[in-house]
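Entry for the shared binder. Reason: the reviewer on the internal report wants the predicted structure included alongside the sequence.
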Amino acid sequence: MNYCGVSNGRTIAMLPRRPDFGAMVALVVTIHAWCGQAWAGDEVSTAGSTVEGEASDLVASPDSHISREDWKRRIGEARSRAEQARREWKLNAPLRTFVPDPPEKIATERVLSDDTLKPGDIVSTDKGFFVFRGRSGSDGQAADFAPIAPR
């Protein structure tokens, strides 16, 4: 433990020095500053710190001066609009449902756009069997397929 000397004239007493004492002082000073407490001798301004002064700074809402009946009427109208929106949401539910493509269609699209096909390859689709003839077009990306007639 560290010791510090304290002198009161002639006698020097050795007192233990606590390492966290400085941190405690800093904490107290910070709390006082954060809470807005003033130190002795500080000038504190009281202008505008009253509740009336703060309330006058707020802008009054046009809805703040309605009667209780008008307020109840507005609440009722809002509830009826919400109920109407719920009804419309339920009626339009079938239109919102997502129907994924059937697996056969997905497989057909995948095989018809396969880049590894070579001329003469036979592919099976949801519309029957096709033979791959090759790529055509100016970009060489359009695939050419010919149907295979069933026997």
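Summary line for the report: DSSP finds five helices and five strands in the chain.
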